[in-house]
Design a protein that fits this description.
Rossmann fold, single chain, binds adenosine-5'-triphosphate, binds magnesium ion, 159 residues, alpha/beta, 8-stranded mixed β-sheet, globular
Amino acid sequence: MSSEKVLYTSSAQQTRQIARDFAALLRGGEIVFLRGPIGAGKTVFVKGVAEALGMRSSPTSASFSLMKRYQKGKKTLFHIDLFRLSEGEVFNLGFEEMLEDEKAVILAEWPDPLASMMPQDRLEMDFTLCGGDERRIALRAFGPVSHALAEGLWKSQNK
Ligand SMILES: Nc1ncnc2c1ncn2[C@@H]1O[C@H](COP(=O)(O)OP(=O)(O)OP(=O)(O)O)[C@@H](O)[C@H]1O
Ligand SMILES: [Mg+2]
């Protein structure tokens, strides 16, 4: 299932609201690949999700800035950013271990280097700059978990 649904946002504030609505839908185990150019709003979205879940980023070693781990109680969220990395450089990231944590939510910016480890069930969010603060976010779901998530998110924005 990979039919596309599209959201629009006109401000960082509105993107944070979308992130809050998204966070409310999470049950654990969701994997999201965020694509789009620099400054598109991917990080604004991810931080909005973590904030909405009341999560704090737990200190990871400085050398591990590619990955931030957010935690609240038993809930874990991983924020990955692989900008300009090659496939060969992400083997030490521990992505497969993250996948083994079945309840962890994974949000990955610039995910292309993960191509060889791409989870089957994943939501892809493609951000496009549309001038000024306007952004278009296309949702494409691969698999039942991400399909439900995309549906839920789309409905929350089209009430
Ligand atoms: N509609 C919008 N949604 C999100 N951010 C917006 C919007 N309009 C303006 N902005 C601004 O655009 C910037 C988005 O930055 P952000 O770091 O989220 O981009 P990014 O997609 O993560 O880029 P990078 O690829 O460099 O990581 C922020 O400064 C934010 O305030
Ligand atoms: Mg970013």
